[in-house]
Specification:
The complex is a heterotrimer of chains A (about 475), B (about 90) and C (about 475). Chain A has 3 domains: about 5-280, no CATH class; about 295-410, no CATH class; about 420-475, Arc Repressor Mutant, subunit A, CATH 1.10.10.410. Chain A contains 15 helices and 16 strands. Chain A has helices spanning about 55-65, 165-180, 220-240, 285-295, 300-310, 315-320, 325-335, 340-355, 370-380, 390-400, 405-410, 420-430, 435-440, 445-460, 465-475, and strands spanning about 5-15, 70, 75, 80, 90-95, 100-110, 115-125, 130-135, 140-145, 150-155, 190-200, 210-215, 245-250, 260-265, 275, 280. In chain A, the strands form 4 sheets. In chain A, strands 2-6-7-10-1-11-12-13-14 form a 9-stranded mixed sheet. Chain A has a 3-stranded antiparallel sheet with strand order 5-4-15, with no helix packed on it. In chain A, strand 8 and strand 9 (about 140-145) form a beta hairpin. The longest helix of chain A has 20 residues, at about 220-240. The longest helix of chain B is centred in the N-terminal third of the chain and has 19 residues, at about 20-35. Chain B has about 90 residues and is mainly α. Chain B has a domain at about 5-40. Helices cover about 35% and strands about 5% of the residues of chain B. Chain C has about 475 residues and is of the alpha/beta class. Chain C has a domain at about 5-255 and about 435-440 and about 455-470: Amidase signature (AS) enzymes. Chain C has helices spanning about 10-15, 20-40, 50-65, 105-110, 155-160, 180-185, 220-230, 275-290, 305-320, 335-350, 350-365, 370-395, 415-420, 425-430, 460-470, and strands spanning about 45, 75-80, 115-120, 170-175, 190, 210-215, 260-265, 290-295, 395-400, 435-445, 450-455. Chain C starts with 7 loop residues before the first helix and ends in a 10-residue tail after the last helix. The chains are: A alpha+beta (about 475), B mainly alpha (about 90), C alpha/beta (about 475). Chains B and C meet through helix 1, helix 2 and strand 2 of B and helix 9, helix 10, helix 11, helix 12 and helix 13 of C. Strand 16 of chain A pairs parallel with strand 1 of chain B, so a sheet runs across the interface.
Chain lengths: ~475, ~90, ~475
Amino acid sequence: MARLYPTIGLEIHAELLTKSKVFCTCSAEFGGDPNSRCCPVCSGLPGTLPILNHTAVEYIVKAGYTMNCEISRFTKWDRKNYFYPDLPKAYQISQMPRPVCLNGHVDIKTSEGDKRIRINRIHLEEDAGKLVHDDYSKATLADYNRCGIPLIEIVTEPDFHSAEEVMAFIEKIRLLLKYAEVCDCKMEQGSLRCDVNISLAEKDAEKLGTRAEIKNLNSVKAVGRAIEYEIYRQTEILEAGGEVVQETRRFSDSTGETSTLRSKEDAHDYRYFPDPDIPPIIFTEEELEAIRESLPEMAEDRKNRYMNDYGFKEIDADTLIADKDICDFFENALKVYNNPKTVLNFMLGEFMRRINLGEMSMDNLEVTPEQVANLVKYGDTDKINKNNYKNIFKEMLETGKTPEAICDENDYWVKEDNDLLEKVIGEIIANNPGPVEQYRAGEQKVFGFFMGQANKALKGQATPNAIREMLEKKLKG
Amino acid sequence: MDIKTLDHLCGLSKLNYTEEEQEKVIAQMSDIINLMDTIKDFDISYDDTKDKNEIAYDDLRKDEAMPSFAAEKLQQNTNPRDNCYVVPKMME
Amino acid sequence: MDLKNTTVASLRKMLDSKEIGAAELAKEFIGEIKDKDSKVLSYITVTEENALSAAEKAQAVIDGGKATALTGIPLAIKDNICTDGVKTTCSSKMLEDFVPPYNATVIEKLNAENYVMLGKTSMDEFAMGGSNQTSAFAKTKNPYNTECVPGGSSGGSAAAVSAGLCAAALGSDTGGSIRQPASFCGVTGLKPTYGRVSRYGLVAFASSLDQIGPIARTAEDCGIILNAVAGVDAHDATSKNVPFTDFNGKIGESLKGMKIALPKEFYSDAVDEEVKNAVMAAAKEYEKMGAELVDCSISSLKYAVPAYYLIASAEAASNLSRYDGIKYGLRGEGRSFEEMIRDSRSRGFGEEVKRRILLGNYALSSGYYDAYYRKALALKQEIIKEYNDVFEKADVILTPTAPSVAYKIGAQDNDPVKMYTADICTVTVNIASLPAINTTCGYDKNGMPIGMSIVGKRFDEATLIQTADAFEKTFSPVRCTL
C-alpha cells in the first residue's frame, strides 16, 4: 500500500468585537451572570424580530478583505433549522447561498516554504447559548448570554496536508483578525474556534477518502494533536483494510484522542431558507471602498515598516508583531518617545521577559506605554542608569507607580555630583588594595569588579560612563 | 405520502402521532401535497436578486449596546434555576 | 346606546364634547360583552380592570384638552399581538398561560394615544385557518347566524366589531385573515401594505406575509386606526419608511376617472353566483360615480393557493419551532430533551397547526426544496409582476373577498384542501405585499353579509379608503340582530 496522504479543510468560527449583539441591542461582551445580557429578541420570545448590526457587517467585510476575498454586492441571511436547547428560536440565522465573502486566499509559511490556502467563503451568523450540565439535579441549564453574539465562519478549501500547515494557518488567521480589530481571537474563551475535516487517501488518488469532522478544539496545540491522532487512527483503520466512517468526532485534551460525537445517520437536514425577517443588503462600491480604507495597518505591513524604516532585524520584527497587544503597546510608547531601537530593546528584553515569566499579562496591565516610554527615555538620556531598568520596571508592575515616583523614592536619579562620585570611588579603592594592585599590574579584568562595586554603592546615581571615567582616573593613581 | 415520510417529517417537526392518528394524517397530507403539486406545472425559475426587497448597508442598525431585560421578567413564563432555563439532561 | 352602529369617528365627537365619559363608554362595552359574548365567543380575555383604569387616564387627557384620535376609544386586540402583562394565547394550548413581558409596537403606539383595551379576541390557532374553529379556546360564532363561522383567522375581532362588543379591533392578515372574517361578519377590514405596520410583537405565522390591520364598522374608522399604528419601526427591518399624513385624506374626493380593474379569474365558477352578483352590482355603482371599469387578468391565480401554502407553511414550520416547552408555553414530559420537546409540541399544537408544520418541513426538506419552496418563490415574483402590469392601467382592483358567504360550523371539518382553496380570493394580495380593504356590498338570501375587496398599489391605502368609503356612503348596512 502506498503511503497515505492526509487532506484537511477547516471551518473557523470567530466572534466579532461589536458592542451589541448581531440582531439585538444587548451587550456582546464575554461572560456575565446567566441570562443577564438578554432581551426578548435574543431569548427567542414570540413576536420578536432581528435587526442586523451595521458594525457586524462592516467587520466581516474587513475580515474578507484581509483574506483577499470577493465581497458580494448582494448578500442575504438564511435560517438554519435545528432543535437544540442552546438555540432559543430553534433556528440559527446564518448565510447559505449568498455569503458576504467568497473565494479568498491566505499565504502561510511552512518548513517546506510558502503555501497558499484558498478560502471558500466567510459568512456572518449568530452564536448559540451555553449549556451547563448539572449532575446533581440531572438537568441541563441554559444560559443565553452568548446567543446572538456575532460570529463569522471561515471555510477553507481542503488545501492542508499536515498539522503544521493547519497550525500555521490558524496563527495567521489570528494575526489577520486581530490586526483588523474584528476579533480578540481567544481560543481558550471560545472567541476563536476551529473544526477540522480530515480524510486520508493515497497521494494523487482521484477521490478523497471518507472524512471525519473533529470538534471541541480549544487551542492551536489541541488542533495539532487532534490532527496527528486522527492521521494515526485513520491510517490504522485503512491499513488494516477497514473503512473510515463519516462522522463527527470530539477531541479530548486529557487523553489526546478523538471519539465519536454523532454519526452521519444523525446528520441534520437543516432546511435552510431565506430569513423573511431580514431584508437582503446591497453594498455600493463607495461603501466597500470606505470599509477597505478603514482597515488598520496589518501585521505584515507593520513588519515591513519596522524593517525598512527602523532597521529592525526580521526575527525581532516577527517577535514584536506576533502579539498585537504588545505591538500596539510598542507603537503607543513610540508616540511618547520616538526611539524605536531602544524601545524595541526594552520590549524584547525586560518587558517580554516579565510576560514570559507570567508576572504580567496584556489583559490587565499595570503600566502604560507612556510610562515605559519615559523609562527608556531616562535611560537613553542618562537620567537614570540602565542597570536600574529591572528594579524600576518590577516596582512599576507591582505598585502601579510611575517611574518618576519610583526613582524619587529610591533615589535612582543620576546625580550631576562629581564630589559624590569621587568620594564613593575613593572609598572603594581605599578598601580594596589587593585588586588595585592587580589592576595596576596589568590585570584589566578586575576593572569589572570595580564597576560592580561602584554600581552597587551608587545605586545608579551615576551613569556607567561617569563611573568608568572616574574609576580609570583614580586607578591610574 | 407514506408512514416512512411521515416519520421523517415528525422527526424534523418534533411531533408524535398515535397509530390511529397516523392513518388520518397520512390521508390528509396526501391530499394537501396533491394540491401543492399543481405548481409543478408552472415552468419558471427563481432569481433571488430580483426580489427588490433589499435595504442599503448604510440603513442597518448602528452598533450601540443598550441595557438588557431583567431576567425575572424575561423568564416569567418558566421556572428557571439559578437564572438558567431548565432542560432535561442532555446526552453528550 | 346603539353600540353596533357607533363609529370611532362619532365616539370621538361624543367624548370630546363630554356627551359621554371614557369610563362610562368602557363600562357600556364591558356590559355588552358580559351580556352577549357568551353567544359569540369573540373574546378569550376581557381586561375589565385595565380598561377602566385606562379609561380614567384617557378621561384626564381629554379633560386636559390633549385628546388624540383614539384617546378613550375602546378597542379589542387579536390574541396574537403581544400585550405586556396580559395573556397572549394565539388560541393555542401551547400558549394558554403565556404572558408576554413586552408590548408589540402597535400596542405601544395605541397606548401613546391613551386608547382603552377591552380584551384579547379569539382567532384560529396561530392564525392558521379561516373559520375560528381551530381555536383551542373560544370557537367564535358568526353574529348574523351563530350556527355559522365568523371567518378567520381574525374571527374574534370581526365578530366583536360586528356584534358591537368593541368600537373597532386590530386583526392580522397573512392570507386573508382580516378581510375574509370582515366579509363574513359584515364589517370593514383593512390589510395594509406589507411593511406599513410594524410586525414587532405580532406572534409570527408567516413572516413575509403577516401584517396587522384594523377591523371596524367603516373605512373611515379603519383609516383612523391605521393613522395611529402605521409607520416605520426600528424593531422591524421589514417595515418601510413611506411617509403619510392622513389615510383618510382622500375621503370625499370624486371617483370620476378612477380606473377599477376586474380580473376575470376572480369571477370564475369557483365563486358563488350571489357573491359575484353583489360585487358586480357594486362595480356598477362605482361606474355611476364616474369610475371606469377595466377588464384584466391575473393568470397565475390558479397557482396562488399552493404557492401561498408552501411559503406560509415553510415559514410557519420555522417560526413555530421555538415552542419547545423550555422558555415559555406548554411544557411536556420526558426524560430527554427529544422526548420532552416532542411531548410539548404534540400536546400544545392543534391538528391544523401540526399539518402546516409537516407541510412546511416537507417543502423545505432536502430533495424537495427546489420543487416546492423555490418554485413558490418564483411564483411570488410572477404574481407581483402580473399585479404591476394591472396597476399600469388601473388605480384599484375589485374582487370578491371570499367565494361564498359564511358557511355552517363543521362544514369544512377534516377537509383541509377545501379549507385551503377557499382562500383563493385573498392570498395573492399577501404574496404581492399589496394593501386591500374589505367592505360589505350586499347580503345573500339568508341575510348573510357579502364582502368585496378593493386592492390597491403598494402604500396607497388612502385610495382604498377613499374608494371603500364612497361605496359605504351609498350603502345601508343591515347590522346583526344579536
